[in-house]
Amino acid sequence: MRYTAEQTLDILVEGNRKFSSGEIAVQRFEDAHQIMMADQKPMAVILSCSDSRVLPEQIFSQGFGDVFVIRVAGNIAKPSQIGSIEYAVKQYEIPLVVVLGHSDCGAIASTIDVCRNPSKVLPENLQQIVDDIKPTVIDVYENNKTAELVEIAKLAIQENAKNIVIELCENSSFLKQRVEDGELKIVAAKFSMDTAIVEFFD
Ligand SMILES: [Zn+2]
Hints:
The chain is α/β, with parallel strands linked by helices. It has one domain (5-201): Beta-carbonic Anhydrase, Chain A, CATH 3.40.1050. It contains eight helices and five strands, in the order ααβαβαβααααββ. It has helices at 5-20, 29-37, 56-59, 79-92, 106-116, 124-143, 149-170, 173-180; strands at residues 44-48, 67-71, 96-102, 185-191, 198-201. A five-stranded mixed beta sheet has the order 2-1-3-4-5, sandwiched between helices. 37% of the residues are buried.
């Protein structure tokens, strides 16, 4: 049976509840092996940051074959990431894409650092990731001029994920069409290191 976006979201929310409360369902290797031998049928795409503490399958209590994960620092959406999402949504009729940011994100912290110290030199490709996130950080600064740095970082993490949701539709006519047809939902979310809870922004 194919799940709707709402049903898929409910499964992820429940999976995260199990994970954050310590009630984790561990997948037995025999089960996993059977799934690996069969065709994959992932129910959601997760565009996550590469942070070593953010393990999308685990934080949603999902196992082999359950979610199609794309990981890149800052969970940004450049053509390779968008193409991977298009592939998974088309190939597996996936109804839900989650853009997953997280607390204490190094990519966001680096971008804030560069905004505060413009003379800072980064390796050229890392610079591209920072340049991608920079407009969001500048917007957050502009709108929260008196906020503490920690608050700026917190807001920038949320806004970055939300802006990437918008960018996915702006930069993919395929994803935009699916969303307009009600066949696909794209949502932003944030994983908290403190609580292990994923907060979804609708
Ligand atoms: Zn990160």
